[in-house]
Amino acid sequence: MGTAAPGVGRWKGENVEFVSVGGGPAGLYFAILTKLRDPDADVTVLERNAAGVTFGWGVTFSDDVLDGLYRGDPVSAAEIQRNPASWTDQVVRLGGQPPAHLGGYGFAIGRHRLLELLADRATALGVKIRYEFPVDDPAALEEFASADLVLAADGANSKLRGWHAEEFGTATDQGADYYIWLGASKVFPEFEYAFEKTEAGWVWFYAYPFDENTTTFIAECGPDTWSRLGFDTLGPAECLKTLQEIFAKHLGGKPLLIQARGEEATEPAPWTRFNWVTNRAWYHGNVVLAGDAAHTTHFSIGNGTKLAFDDVLELDRQLGAHPGDIPAALAAYQRERVAAVGARQEVARNSSRWFEQVEQFTELSPTVFSYALRTRGNASRPAPSGLGWLLHRATQLSFGRAVRSMISSSKRRQRVRKNTAEPPAHAD
Q1: Tens-digit pLDDT profile for residues 229-283
Q2: CA–CA gap between residue 331 and residue 394 (Å, rounded)
Q3: Over residues 181-197, mean pLDDT
Q4: In CATH, what number does 17-356 get?
Q5: Residue spans per domain, the chain
Q6: Closest alpha carbon to 317 in 39, 123, 12, 34
């Protein structure tokens, strides 16, 4: 697909055409925001999968994500808030030792449910969603080459970005550890980290509930452990069996679940290494990047969906602030988001490096180990100290957790009242 110069001068009521390539959270939410800002705009979302088909498990949320969604579109935000599972603690288990606690709360919603809610809202506003569209085919996308704006929201391996990688200044590299994104039929009541030592080395998981039946379950290990356990050759069934044996005491006899795509059921289980993506430029011609197509942040900080929403919220804000001048809006969007995302990517890289070096911390006590996990720092040299450490120590006591939970609950209620009382950013 070629790139045209973005429109200057045309605006509301003048057949402005916007296209989102990718029907994930960024693509659908941008379509919603665009229709709210300009109901007469021609807005299309192109999605490679069939309607109702998506891959992935739960998507995490935090208060600031919900705040942003309420500012953008209170209608879909209220629907999303009605659906998430939640937790009021983060539990850390190190081998067979007593658990440690990080406190804090969060939310999660099934990716399938999130996309369903966003698609329904977009359709109700007049957005056209074309499913089973060959988004990887340049010839198929040529019909949209003259669109005023094309949002590349087609993921970390974006083909649309890849066709102009030099202009975007795309750089990629991979993390050291291997991970696999699974589901678990055991519903964990809290966000949980668990680290288990095997003869091949340490293996760990992150787990969090997202509906009444299923938990997101991400298993991770270093490359040497991964190969010693045979994960480079095991098929899905054998991989799940091995992981279920390693984490048997955590799963309580419940099975792990895997999502296979086509022939993948007969191939090695889909372990991968994290793919870091950065771009020097976020727009070229009439194509602008958002979400994982623009940047990736390691899943251990749970910011992927948040940053995707933040991207399109800022893009929509700049389009509204520069009516009739899309190039100026794109320049302002790039300036704002590159700075904001760069800071989060640095946090994410630090987090990723901590997990890549986790074995050096496993001889610590659970309390000190969990503090190192919380800060993603070296908590043993020098010895932990300061207010953060004192708060962490207090969180290990049931009374301390109860106090934190009360404070968190109060904050949540206040934010809900504030969000539901504020007028919408756009008129329907």
Answers
A1: 999 999 999 999 999 999 999 999 999 999 866 555 557 889 999 999 999 999 9
A2: 47
A3: 96
A4: 3.50.50.60
A5: 17-356
A6: 34
